[in-house]
Structure formats: structure tokens, C-alpha cells
Amino acid sequence: MDLILVGFMGAGKTTVSGILADDLALAQRDLDDLITDAAGQTIPEIFASRGESGFRALETQTLRAALQQPGILATGGGTPVQDANFAVLQDTDVPVVLLDATPESILTRIGGDTNRPLVQQLGPRGLSELQAQRNPRYHALADLVIATDDLTPEEIAAQIKAWLINRAGEAERA
Ligand SMILES: Nc1ncnc2c1ncn2[C@@H]1O[C@H](COP(=O)(O)OP(=O)(O)OP(=O)(O)O)[C@@H](O)[C@H]1O
Ligand SMILES: O=C(O)C1=C[C@@H](O)[C@@H](O)[C@H](O)C1
Ligand SMILES: [Mg+2]
């Protein structure tokens, strides 16, 4: 993998990874898509038939395989929560970018979404509490943090690209 995006549901990982992958001519890999492809079920179907723990087991398996592939990986919002996933993401040399967003932005973006079971299960308040609980994990992994509230996905992709170019230059000079 060349780059990993982490952050809460609705932070924009899938959207931004698509733009950046196109721009850099890299493969876009979305962990949620890889999981649904492997399972032959949507995320709500996986949660309904196997429970959240069944989804998490698939997520861990799929993450390990995805990290062996080149490209830009958009993780799921809960990926860093499992200790095994967190350890793998912490150990990798691949740069990790955190897309951060306030609970207000998250609710505006995904409050009405039906493809994320936790949005329905938790409601607005529970969702914000879950985000606060997960934030330390996201930040612990991040080599770069982008506050996305007032940026378009294109602007975020451009900031990440500039950071990657600068980072490559620094590595060359070292
Ligand atoms: N910077 C942004 N400004 C406004 N809307 C955004 C921004 N980034 C993403 N969105 C919108 O928010 C919604 C969720 O985005 P996206 O699916 O990329 O999030 P995600 O981080 O991949 O979430 P998940 O963890 O659930 O996979 C989409 O409707 C997308 O268009
Ligand atoms: O934050 C989460 O726990 C999740 C985020 C989504 O990307 C999906 O992986 C799923 O809906 C669970
Ligand atoms: Mg996504």
C-alpha cells in the first residue's frame, strides 16, 4: 500500500481516496468494498446475518490482505478500533492520513445514511460519543491530520498530494 486513510464514518475517506488515486494514477482500494465483495453481501446484510463481530472478523482478514497490495487504502471508520488492526496499522511504514471532521459535519454528511448500520443503531448522540471514544486511536496512527469541515474533497486530496510530494523530497535529501 502507498497511502492509508483513517477517520470516522463520513470523514470522506472513500471520496478523497478516489480523487487522489485518479490524480496519482494509483489503485483505489476501499476496505468496506473489499469486505462486501468477499462476502457477497452489503454491510447491513453482514451486520444482520453475522453480527458486528462477524463484520469485524472479515474486516481484520481483509485488512491484512489489502496491505499487501499497492494503491491508496480507504479504511472503514471502525477499522482502527480492533487491537489487531490497530497494531498492523501502527507497524506499517505506509503513511497514514487522518481525515478529521466535527460531529456536526459528520451528522450533516451521513445522519440520514442507511448503509451504515451504526448510524441507525446509535442515533446522533451515540454517534458523536462513539467518535469521541475513537478519536485517540485515529490520532495515534496519523502522520498527517486534515480538518475537513471547511474543505471540499478536491481540496483535501490536493493537500495530501502536496504533503506526499514534500515528504518524498525530504526522503531524497536525507
Ligand atoms: N469534505 C467534504 N465535504 C462535504 N461532504 C463530504 C466531504 N467528504 C465527504 N463528504 C460526503 O460525506 C459522505 C460520506 O463520505 P465517504 O463515504 O467518503 O466517507 P467515509 O469516510 O468513507 O465513511 P465510512 O467510514 O463510513 O466508509 C458522502 O456523501 C460524501 O460525498
Ligand atoms: O465506523 C464503523 O464502525 C463503520 C464504518 C464503515 O466504514 C463500515 O465499515 C461499517 O459501517 C462500520
Ligand atoms: Mg468509506
UniProtKB/TrEMBL annotation:
Catalyzes the specific phosphorylation of the 3-hydroxyl group of shikimic acid using ATP as a cosubstrate. ATP binds at residues 10-15, 116. It is found in: Cytoplasm. Its EC number is 2.7.1.71. InterPro entries: P-loop_NTPase (IPR027417), Shikimate/glucono_kinase (IPR031322), Shikimate_kinase/TSH1 (IPR000623). It catalyses: shikimate + ATP = 3-phosphoshikimate + ADP + H(+). The keyword Manganese does not apply. Binds 1 Mg(2+) ion per subunit. This is Shikimate kinase. Belongs to the shikimate kinase family. One of its GO terms (molecular function) is kinase activity. The keyword Magnesium applies. Its cofactor is Mg(2+). Mg(2+) binds at residue 14. Substrate binds at residues 32, 56, 77, 134. Pathway: Metabolic intermediate biosynthesis; chorismate biosynthesis; chorismate from D-erythrose 4-phosphate and phosphoenolpyruvate: step 5/7. PANTHER family: SHIKIMATE KINASE, SHIKIMATE KINASE 1, CHLOROPLASTIC. Monomer. Pfam families: SKI. HAMAP family: Shikimate_kinase. CDD domains: SK. Keywords: Amino-acid biosynthesis, Aromatic amino acid biosynthesis, ATP-binding, Cytoplasm, Kinase, Magnesium, Metal-binding, Nucleotide-binding, Transferase. Its main location: cytoplasm. It comes from the Bacteria.
